[in-house]
Amino acid sequence: MAARNREEEDQTIEIRYHIQCDDDTSHEFRVVLNARTLEQVRRAEDEPPAWTRLGDWDEGGCELDPTTHSHCPLAVALADVVERFRALLSYTEVTATIETPQRIFVKRSSVQRVLSSLIGLLMATSGCPSMAFLKPLARFHLPFATREETLFRVVGAYLFGQYLLHHRGGPFDVDLDKLRQAYARIHTINLSLARRLRHFAGGDANVNAVVLLDLFAQEFPPAIDEHMGEMAYLFEEYMQPELPGQTNPPT
User: How far apart are CA 63 and CA 183, in angstroms?
Assistant: First the structure.
């Protein structure tokens, strides 16, 4: 039994969110990912709530066919979180403890900020095709990342992927054009999701958590040109003819 449990642990990655409210209520979320596909491992559950059905809302050009996919995987992934926090207001203060396989984060913040971090993780690993390129960020989840940290992580992960693609014979998107397009697509998805949540939720915490995520999606294309220039000072050593420790090859 112990050996089987260890084998299962090797095949999954678990991230826990514990959210403690000031009224002594608390919420625990276990996000279990398949270690290979980086998609959520879910138990068989009852029929998802009606608001998650695919095709009932303007999906903004969803890649999935409603005749073969009855529900939006992104909405289904968020259903439990949305239900539990549907009555809370954005500015409600909570204490969040997030456990990843590598470390523990503890932060006192507004519920919308905490939910934004959790919802971002769930969206990236939901199985939504438009979110799949965010899986590497979910694998190395960083709760409460700043705008600069997110920009660094997103661009770094994308260029890592482009490097691997290039070495398989594919084109290298050095100008990040496809990444800009991907975030424009995410912005459209966020708008559709926010419309769903406004219709369903009583409070505004869930909606504003998505709005916080969408701020980055909206800012990302101009941020590539503007803020990456501001971060150039971090890479001064890369601008030198040689990196430290390098030697000129013999002539």
Answer: 15
Instruction: Take residue 7 and report the two structure tokens written for it.
Output: 């084998």
CA neighbor of 95 nearest in space, from 19, 4, 182, 9: 19
If you search the block for the tokens 């997103």, which residue do you land on?
Answer: 154
Q: How far apart are the first and last CA of the chain?
A: 62
Render pLDDT for 162-216 as a digit per residue (tens, 0 to 9). 999 999 999 999 999 999 999 989 988 888 888 888 777 666 888 888 888 888 8
Give the 3-state secondary structure of residue 67.
coil
Is the pTM higher than 0.85?
yes
Q: DSSP state, 171?
A: P
Residue 92 and residue 90: Cα distance in Å, rounded?
A: 6
User: 79 near 49, Cβ under 8 Å?
Assistant: yes
DSSP H or E segment with residue 199 = helix 177-200
CA distance 144 to 149: 9
Amino acid at 225: D
Work out the percent of the chain whose per-residue pLDDT is above 70: 89
**How does DSSP assign 176-187, residue by residue?**
-HHHHHHHHHHH
What is the residue-averaged pLDDT of the chain? 86
Name 218's Cβ contacts closer than 8 Å, sequence gap at least 6.
Answer: 187
50, pLDDT greater than 90: no
d(CA 93, CA 20): 9
Residue type, 184: A
